[in-house]
């Protein structure tokens, strides 16, 4: 990446919902406070991971397809159920593309923390210093508070004008760098640093701060600081609604209606750094091993990232007890701890997690949106399955 010379640097988303209404619900849910921490129930010890994933897919309202990749030093195990495409019956594959939803927030965290490590940014840098065009009332918010979802920024995804635009045209091409304009007339929701509230606006601001500090576009920063170092070759941040092939088709599953393919309903320009990345199970495995393992920056930055906020949950909640750090979450299961992120958007729900040293990892992807507000019972079931996968990973490797 180019090496400008700013100060403090060393050199170098009853009746069946229509698409627009469904998107509105989806984006509001993406921005909600983390799901309640209902404890997952364990499965019987004799249940295999394959049987559990099959059962999740067969559950009413469940995903048409699911794929999990467990990896350790000895190699990978792939567990899959259902289909990637109901029209063709093709099986899910590790190199199928998928929308990673709010797991993309880990990527913006990776960019920002890499820049902190390189002294292009500091965790105490404020919006006033780096993005003076934003409202003065937001000026004291720091990069640390954005990354920990304690900023108080109002969520642009809830703004009436934003939602009206989506309802009129779900594939509308937004100016991603002006998304915060939808809430520029709003005060902070609370004094920065005093509360945890999961927000899409936080990660838009993170990406903008990264651009302001370097003079480099966020997409290029992703490539230089994340994709290349971790060997991600099928990961991108598109602006449009098309999916690269092959891909896991995402579905709205609302029985008794037949599942509806919603893979290409929504333009990614309206979520951008908060949830727009498209990747594959293979690439997400590589990413979470490097990210959770601290390979992208030094130990001092890793220590700052892992200052946990007790009970701060990702959206949807991950397995076990959730605690929040800087663009990463700690999932304390009955078998041990993994670090990572979750995400849910129209047609997809994701979990990526790895041990703190990055040596054991789990990527768990399903092809419908599952969260506390929409499908609480299914979420509890999925979290139980996820915890059992984590236990298999920690106890027996693959």
Structure description:
- By secondary structure, the chain is α+β, with helices and mostly antiparallel strands.
- Strands 2-1-12-11-10-9-8-7 form an eight-stranded antiparallel β-sheet, sandwiched between helices. The chain has a two-stranded antiparallel sheet with strand order 3-6.
- Strand 10 and strand 11 form a beta hairpin.
- Helix 2 packs antiparallel against helix 11, helix 3 runs parallel beside helix 7 and helix 3 crosses helix 8.
- The longest helix is centred in the C-terminal third of the chain and has 21 residues.
- The radius of gyration is 20 Å and the shape is globular.
- The chain starts with 18 loop residues before the first helix and ends with a helix.
- 56% of the residues are buried.
- The N terminus is likely disordered.
Q: What's the overall average pLDDT, rounded?
A: 91
Strand order of the largest sheet: 2-1-12-11-10-9-8-7
User: What structural category do the secondary elements indicate?
Assistant: alpha+beta
Order of helices and strands: HHEEEHHHHHHEEEHHEEEEEEH
Number of strands: 12
Discrete helix count? 11
| Silhouette | globular
Alpha carbon gyration radius: 20 Å
Topology:
Elements: H1 19-30, H2 49-58, E1 65-72, E2 75-82, E3 98-99, H3 104-117, H4 127-130, H5 143-147, H6 160-168, H7 200-214, H8 218-230, E4 251-252, E5 260-261, E6 278-279, H9 281-292, H10 299-305, E7 309-310, E8 321-324, E9 329-333, E10 336-345, E11 348-354, E12 361-366, H11 376-396
Antiparallel strand pairs: 1-2, 1-12, 3-6, 4-5, 7-8, 8-9, 9-10, 10-11, 11-12
């Amino acid at each position: 990446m180019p090496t400008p010379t700013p100060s403090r640097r060393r050199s170098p988303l009853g009746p069946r919902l229509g698409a627009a209404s469904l998107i509105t619900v989806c984006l509001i849910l993406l921005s909600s406070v983390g799901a309640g921490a209902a404890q997952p129930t364990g499965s019987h010890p004799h249940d295999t991971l394959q049987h559990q994933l099959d059962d999740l897919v067969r559950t009413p309202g469940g995903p048409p397809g699911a794929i999990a990749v467990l990896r350790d030093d000895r190699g990978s195990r792939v567990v899959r159920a259902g289909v990637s495409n109901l029209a063709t019956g093709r099986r899910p594959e590790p190199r199928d593309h998928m929308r990673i939803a709010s797991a993309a927030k880990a990527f913006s965290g990776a960019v920002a923390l890499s820049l902190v490590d390189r002294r292009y940014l500091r965790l105490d840098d404020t919006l006033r210093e780096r993005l003076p065009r934003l409202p003065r009332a937001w000026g004291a918010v720091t990069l640390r508070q954005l990354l920990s979802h304690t900023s108080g920024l109002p969520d642009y995804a809830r703004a009436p004008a934003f939602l009206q635009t989506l309802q009129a045209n779900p594939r509308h091409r937004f100016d991603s760098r002006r998304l915060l304009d939808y809430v520029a007339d709003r005060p902070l929701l609370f004094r920065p640093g005093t509360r945890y509230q999961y927000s899409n606006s936080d990660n838009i601001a993170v990406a903008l701060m990264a651009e302001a500090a370097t003079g480099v576009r966020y997409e290029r920063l992703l490539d230089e600081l994340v994709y290349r170092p971790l060997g991600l070759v099928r990961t991108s941040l598109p602006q449009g609604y098309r999916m690269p092939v092959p891909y896991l088709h995402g579905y709205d599953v609302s029985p008794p209606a037949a599942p509806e393919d919603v893979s290409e309903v929504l333009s990614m320009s309206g979520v951008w750094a908060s949830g727009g990345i498209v990747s594959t199970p293979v690439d997400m495995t590589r990413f979470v091993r490097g990210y959770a393992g601290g390979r992208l920056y030094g130990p001092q930055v890793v220590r700052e990232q892992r200052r946990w906020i007790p009970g701060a949950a990702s959206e949807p909640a991950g397995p076990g007890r959730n605690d929040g750090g800087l663009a990463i979450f700690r999932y304390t299961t009955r078998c041990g701890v993994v670090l990572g992120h979750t995400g849910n958007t129209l047609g997809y729900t994701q979990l990526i997690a790895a041990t703190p040293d990055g040596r054991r990892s789990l990527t768990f992807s399903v092809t419908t949106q599952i969260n506390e507000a929409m499908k609480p019972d299914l979420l509890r079931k999925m979290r139980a399955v996820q915890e059992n996968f984590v236990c298999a990973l920690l106890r027996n490797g693959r």
